[in-house]
Amino acid sequence: MSNIDTYLDSHFIHRSNWLRAAVLGANDGIISVSSLAIGVAAASSTSEPIVLATVAALVAGALSMAAGEYVSVSSQTDIETADIAREQEELLEMPEEELQMLAKIYENRGLKKETALQVALELTEHDALGAHVRDELGINEISQANPIQAALASGSAFTVGGILPLLVVLFAPVKSMEYWLYGFTILFLIILGAFAAKTGGSKISKAIIRITIWGTIAMGLSAFVGYLFGVKV
Questions:
Q1: What is the pLDDT of residue 17?
Q2: Beta carbons of 26 and 160 less than 8 angstroms apart
Q3: CB of 23 within 8 A of CB of 29?
Q4: Number of C-alpha atoms within 13 angstroms, CB side, residue 165?
């Protein structure tokens, strides 16, 4: 492997698509399932309703997360495909205007006018559509959407995240269930935040603080709703 390849491999942006979907899924699984379990536990004196609600939240959430991510990313893919097709037509109908547009893009990025035109000419000769897709539309291998990958990552991550609070519900005492759930959920979120930051090459402390604060707010509001209704099941 060359020094350039090694340098490129040291960056983390190529992980952004699947990492975003996986972290979002796991975070949603942990927080949403825990929050629901806490809300039910706050209004229940037996474990059965809590377990039932937690399992239902886990199954429904995982399916919803995967389906929602697939539909969302598919919509993005449709837009990208339509733009690429439109760009291909423009290259056939007005190649000179498209060449000048490409040169102008490079000029705006800091190249001299003559250099920008030369770069545009050489890239057009090599792969005109690829150059316009990348530099005019801003679509590349890193940013390009992958619906199936995103759906699988989100659904699987939600399931993994949701199983963690389910294990707490199965083994923690009913009397203090809310506190066990809160404590372990914060622990799970800290681990997730640290893992996501480490994998993405970002600051670990910032990720942990962010994910812990929002998780606490979500669980606190859910517990409040449970106590508000105050119906013991």
A1: 57
A2: yes
A3: no
A4: 39
Q: At a CB cut-off of 8 Å and minimum separation 6, what does 53 contact?
A: 36, 37, 40
Q: In angstroms, how far is CA 77 from the centroid of its own chain?
A: 16
Closest CA to 155 of 29, 17, 54, 51: 29
* CA-CA-CA-CA dihedral for 27, 33, 34, 38, to nearest 10: 150
Q: 38-56 burial, b if ≥16 CB within 10 A, otherwise e?
A: bbbbbbbeeeeebeebbbe
7-45, pLDDT tens digit by residue? 434 444 445 555 666 777 888 899 889 888 888 887 778
- Residue 122 carries which side chain, given as an amino acid letter? E
- Residue whose tokens read 């409040």: 224
Return the closest-CA partner of residue 174 out of 232, 124, 214, 220. Answer: 232
Sign of CA dihedral 76, 81, 86, 87: positive
Using the CB atoms, write b or e for 58-88: b if 16+ within 10 Å.
Answer: beebbeebbeebbebbbeeeeebeebeeebe
What are the CA-CA distances from residue 231 to residues 46, 220, 228 (Å)? Answer: 12, 18, 9
pLDDT tens-digit map of 141-170: 655 567 888 888 888 999 999 999 999 999
Contact by Cβ (8 Å): 179, 37: no
Largest CA distance in the chain: 77
| Nearest-angstrom CA–CA distance, 231 and 67 | 34
Mean pLDDT of 55-64: 93
Which residue reads 């007005």 in tokens? 94
